[in-house]
Amino acid sequence: MLIHIILASLMRCGHRVGDCAVMCVRDVASTLKGYYRDKTLGHIDTGYSCSDSFTQGKYEDSVEYVPSGYTAITAMLRHVRLTEDDVFVDFGCGKGRVICAIATQRLRKVIGIEVDKTLADIARANLTNLIKVSVTRTPAEVLHSDATAFDPRDGTIFFMFNPFERKTLEDVLNNIKTSLISHPRDIRILYNNPKHGVVLDMQDWLVAEGEIDNSLVYVWRNRPVSQIDSAGTGECLARTPAGLCGVG
To answer: What are 147-178's pLDDT values in tens digits?
Structure first.
């Protein structure tokens, strides 16, 4: 198991192995922590696994699954005050680590969106295991779907860990914006290690709130619906550093 974890971490570094030893060590520590947290949570398996191929979405820009670290998840849960009216949506949920953790809280619903059927099936199995051990407190489901085809009208909290590239992200954001006009509400977008944070910065209907407790998870909220159409374009409101990257 340990050898597999080390190899998985080194594979993420590719040809930069010699320049990212510290990153590899951190990856190993995070993977080990994730493994034991998975077992503690409900004998689930949400860890990274190497894949030579995975399903692509509409724009063929899907990214290989790597799970969010539990440190980031804990920071999110501490910062975001979830209510029983919230619907949490994870775009590119992979094996379901984030949705499994969120499902232990009290919300209206938790939804995972995953374009790869193999990963979606694993996420569903993980949720089933949580239900068996009576850990879940919220209805949860995994949809095998392209993120651009998902109707976000019920969502109030949207999460991403770089599951796709810019083109798909732009479509997803446009769908959320359109849903706000037809179904006015307050929403937040949580973006872990935002590779394309600038895309959110450029949205005239979003306001950046910054990073959560040095977790690399950044938060945006929507402007009041009455301001969405009248807001100016091109205003850079973000406080996200350039060059951050990650996947999952």
So the answer is: 999 999 999 999 999 999 999 999 999 999 99
Confidence of residue 31 (pLDDT cuts 50, 70, 90): low
Secondary structure (3-state) at 171: helix
Statement to judge: residues 74 and 168 lie in one domain = yes
Q: What is the mean pLDDT of residues 117-139?
A: 91
In the chain, which ranges are E strands? Answer: 87-91, 109-114, 140-144, 157-160, 188-192, 206-211, 217-222
Tell me: do 75 and 32 sit in the same domain: no
**Alpha-carbon distance 55 to 62, whole Å?**
7
CATH number at residue 140: 3.40.50.150
Q: What tokens were used for 24?
A: 């590899």
Instruction: For residues 83 and 28, state if they share a domain.
Output: no
Q: Are strands 157-160 and 217-222 parallel, antiparallel or unpaired?
A: unpaired
